[in-house]
Automatic annotation (TrEMBL):
Keyword rRNA-binding: no
Principal subcellular localization: membrane
Cellular localisation: Membrane
Protein's name according to its UniProt entry: Energy-coupling factor transporter transmembrane component T
Chain segments annotated as transmembrane: 57-75, 82-103, 123-150, 260-282
CDD domains with a match to the protein in the record: EcfT
Membrane topology: Multi-pass membrane protein
Source domain of life: Bacteria
Length: 283
């Protein structure tokens, strides 16, 4: 059953998308949804690798702005995206930066500026600069990973690795089956909770009642997981899973010209940023 009605043989063969994969319905300007998942992983990967070794603040700040620009244009702007970009990442950068500033060895930083003193302990401006650069660096890496994370479904990523990277389908489709287990377990957990609520089992408030409720969920959830795993194994055996080195793909995730253009353009911008800040970016 799909959102548009029952899944018949005719609609299944001619449908260009997987009816069981959660996809975001967005306008055409949100280009990241139409790209190959591997392109969205390959484009920021060199920048992420270089950011591990940079020590200045300008280079990660530039990559952070680049990731923000790509995300704001390429994915659908939602409250979740706004919370991540404008609340979670900045706060994380501040907390991480301040933490690293506290841990930095004062003898290895610039001591010309004293921020504050508490007894015999002194916070120098050089320590804050090191901590701020570290926080920016980690935030830039996280922001670059969101380019693929916020616009790619798990099934599409698995199919792309099987079709383009030639990952054995025995590994890829096993991972795809694992992706299917998560929403299945969520549904079964809801059913178990409703059944316990109807029977009035493990009622009450407080930590002990909550622990009793969760222990009551474990056994039926494990039983349901075992039954579901057995059904999946039987279905895979019935379809001769693993009997042949290759299988026919029902849903294709092709690599198009736009994927190549996106990767090359992102690499070019990354190279320009590194060229501009290279004298101060690496140590």
């Amino acid at each position: 059953m799909t959102d548009a009605g029952p899944l018949t043989a005719a609609t299944a063969v001619h449908s260009p998308m997987d009816p069981y994969a959660t996809r975001v319905q967005a306008s055409g300007i949100r280009f990241l949804y139409a790209l190959n998942p591997l392109a969205k992983l390959a484009a920021p990967l060199p920048a992420m690798a270089v950011l591990v070794f940079v020590r200045d603040a300008a280079t990660p700040a530039a990559f952070l702005l680049l990731a923000y620009a790509v995300l704001l244009v390429g994915v659908d702007f939602t409250r979740r995206l706004a919370a991540v970009l404008f609340l979670a990442l900045p706060l994380s950068a501040l907390v991480i930066g301040f933490g690293f500033a506290l841990w930095t060895d004062p003898s290895r930083v610039d001591q010309s500026i004293v921020v504050w003193q508490l007894g015999g302990w002194t916070m120098y401006g050089g320590a804050l600069a090191v901590g701020g650069a570290t926080g920016l660096r980690l935030s830039a890496i996280v922001a670059l990973t969101l380019i693929a994370g916020l616009s790619t479904t798990g099934p599409d990523l698995v199919r792309a690795t099987v079709q383009q990277l030639r990952v054995p389908y025995r590994i890829g489709y096993t991972a795809l089956a694992a992706f299917r287990f998560v929403p299945r377990f969520g549904h079964e957990l809801d059913v178990i909770r409703q059944a316990h609520r109807v029977r009035g089992a493990h009622g009450g408030r407080g930590p002990l009642a909550a622990a009793a409720r969760w222990f009551g969920y474990v056994v039926p959830l494990m039983a349901g997981a075992i039954r579901h795993a057995e059904r999946v194994a039987l279905a895979m055996d019935a379809r001769a899973f693993g009997a042949h080195p290759d299988r026919t793909e029902r849903y294709l995730v092709p690599w198009r010209v736009r994927d190549t253009v996106f990767v090359l353009a992102f690499w070019a911008v990354s190279a320009a940023i590194l060229t501009a800040f290279f004298p101060w970016g690496l140590s």
